[in-house]
Write a structure and sequence with these properties.
alpha/beta, 5-stranded parallel beta sheet, binds NADP nicotinamide-adenine-dinucleotide phosphate
Length: 482
Amino acid sequence: MTETTYQYIDGEWIEGESDDTISVRDPADPADPIASFPGASSAQAAAAVRAAGNASDAWAETPPGERDRALHDVADRIEDNHESLAETLTAEEGKPISSSRGEVARAAEIFRFFGGDARRTTGTTIPSDDPGTFTYTVREPLGVVTLLTPWNFPIATPSWKLATALATGNAVVLKPSSETPTIARRLVELLEAAGVPDGAVNLVVGAGSTVGDALTTDERVDGISFTGSTGTGQHIAEAAASRGIPIQAEMGGKNPQVVLPDADIDAAAADAVAGACGGTGQACTATSRLLVHEEIAEEVTAAVVDRTESLSVGPGAEDPDMGPAVSAEELESNLQYIEIAEDEGATLLTGGGKPGGVGSGYFVEPTVFADVEPGMRIAHEEVFGPVLSIIEVSDLDEAIDVANSVEYGLSASVFTSDMAAAREFTNRIEAGVVKVNGTTTGSQIQLPFGGMKASSTERQKEMGQRAYEFYTHEKVVYRSDP
Ligand code: NAP
């Protein structure tokens, strides 16, 4: 296979046929593309959907144990290729190599855990009012599911969608972000090697604007699982709603961390900085707003600035605390938001530009603003970069009101030693994931994950014990004696 062959359709690796060029660059050293190839055409995307449609019945009828074994085999293969997958991930996404190693290890865990859904996807027996009738439910695969994924967790996100969709007997078409297609290609190679049959898994690498419609509006598509920006997600959700097919869309965030006067201030500052700057702030759950009680604002702010200034920034391969932004567009967007915040009157405490001495890469300094008011754009729009806004509040009520005042509702946290305050916060906060004395980022695969409000379509969540629900129909059976 050559470096330009990225499309995997009906068991064949082929070149894209569109006029779009997909250029993959190392964000730390972007001068020369590390891969450059034609993206898929709309006709190729339709062919991938057709291939999935042709393969779906046979895959659905494959015994669950066999599907489970194939997905466990993928996990083993990910582990066998752990270091080179981590290097691929860092080369095209830019994150520190230790983070890539962690993400690759997590992908293996995901295939192992959700592969088990093949055998765990169960219905229920329910007592019938009629003694001659046995009543129960069964779960059946949707059929063909399109999986659309972003670049920020480019092996973990495809993995949790692929593993659950395939475990439950669906055939899939994966379309990864155009920023990170190589790690997706390598993952699909491992699925092929593990014996997932031709057509049951397909890979389409192409611009969303070229292949998106074919992958979402084709009548053979029975469901869509999307992770990405709110704008794109809402557009796809509308298309899915018009056809009445299930859509799972996990989207943007503007996540608050509240710090109350009785909190462990060092722990709160450490988690705020880790949440804001880890992964260069490019996590949907990144800590974006630090809502600090006025009594401790000075102390918390000093600790946050201190920790932010101690972060090392550099190429992911050198394993710094923080790598570059993924692309020139993301860097530009980060810098624009920094300018907007200054124009709106926020006080820049540290960072605010490109760091020196790191060459032509897409680096941005970890940045902290104080004197941020809830009405400012920096306080309610997703930045998706290492920019933390400190907002002072006078009590828990105000903190919750400000936290809930944005359109998003993905993750939120509170730092306090008062469990009554913690309970009040967890009860009233509008967020799909809530932490007490923990950072807004990070999730465990055995727990459900997903947002509220504009962060999610709020259908069944991803991951957790019931991730299979999205990928299956529930059929109710009344079986009566003849
Ligand atoms: P994005 O621009 O919305 O893209 C996500 C995926 O959708 C990409 O594969 C993209 O392809 C594709 N796409 C774009 N237009 C499409 C269309 N018309 N039809 C079908 N697919 C289309 O998001 P991103 O910039 O990659 O990721 C960053 C965003 O993801 C942030 O907003 C972040 O908060 C969010 N995110 C959310 C979660 C969560 O679980 N809530 C997790 C991670 C990230 P192209 O790359 O070819 O455009």
